Amino acid sequence: MSSNIAPDSELPPYAGVTLADIILVLSPQAAAEANEALMTQDVIGFDTEAKPTFNKGEKSSGPHLIQLATADRVYLYPLSRLPEHHGLEAILESPRILKVGFGLGSDLAQLKSRMGIEAKNILDLSRALKSETHKHSLGAKSAVAHFFGQRLQKSKRTTTSNWANPNLTERQILYAANDAQVALRVYHAALALGHLPPT
Fold first, then answer.
1. Fewest C-beta atoms under 10 Å: which of 84, 92, 129, 168?
2. Helices (H) and strands (E) in the chain, counts
């Protein structure tokens, strides 16, 4: 990857998804409809959010939100309002559907420890897109700057907000949805440029 990227402040903002593109999965019926749509996909964007921990030794009780994205929709599963998994296992454990995201280590560990879900066919773009200019890992912000020449805005206030809240704010909803769908968009862009092997 080239490192000839304009400073972050000079890049135009990444537009991302709109509220109209986001579906909050708040009932078993909504989950069934979302799962039906997601199970037809070959590749989906994937991320989770958890209420942050601030005290030393404190263990996360997350994930509290699971985000799954197609090219035109993002499905948000607030787990406090969906006490049962409602088909999430079928999607996340499917060996056929590729799940792509950034920095998924803690997400996968929390899914396994809290929900007993062992996600399969995962592509962590932070590792897959490592290069000489990004030797350790590549985050979503860097990837958006590289592939799209745009600035992905990541508010620390939103990042560290209470994701266990059953009533998410509009800011949280948009942030979480973008986290999942931007991974899918970066995946397709990287694939088209030959930065990833074809699936």
1. 84
2. 7, 6
- Identify the three-state secondary structure at position 67: strand
CA angle centred on 54, ends 89 and 140, rounded to 5°: 55
Place of tokens 């989770």: 48
What is the layout of strands, in order, in the sheet containing 98-101? 22-24, 74-78, 65-69, 43-49, 98-101, 122-124
Residue ranges of the chain with per-residue pLDDT less than 70: 1-9, 53-61, 83, 131-137, 199
Write out the two tokens for 168: 């998410």
Contact 137, 103 (CB under 8 A): yes
pLDDT, tens digit, 9 for 90 and up, residues 162-192: 999 889 999 999 999 999 999 999 999 999 9
Structure tokens that stand for 184 in this block: 């899918």
* Backbone region of residue 8 per phi and psi (left: phi > 0; alpha: psi in -120 to 50; beta: other values): alpha
Answer for the pair 141, 154: CB distance below 8 angstroms, yes or no: yes
**Rounded distance between C-alpha atoms, residue 31 and residue 89, angstroms:** 12
pTM of the model: 0.90
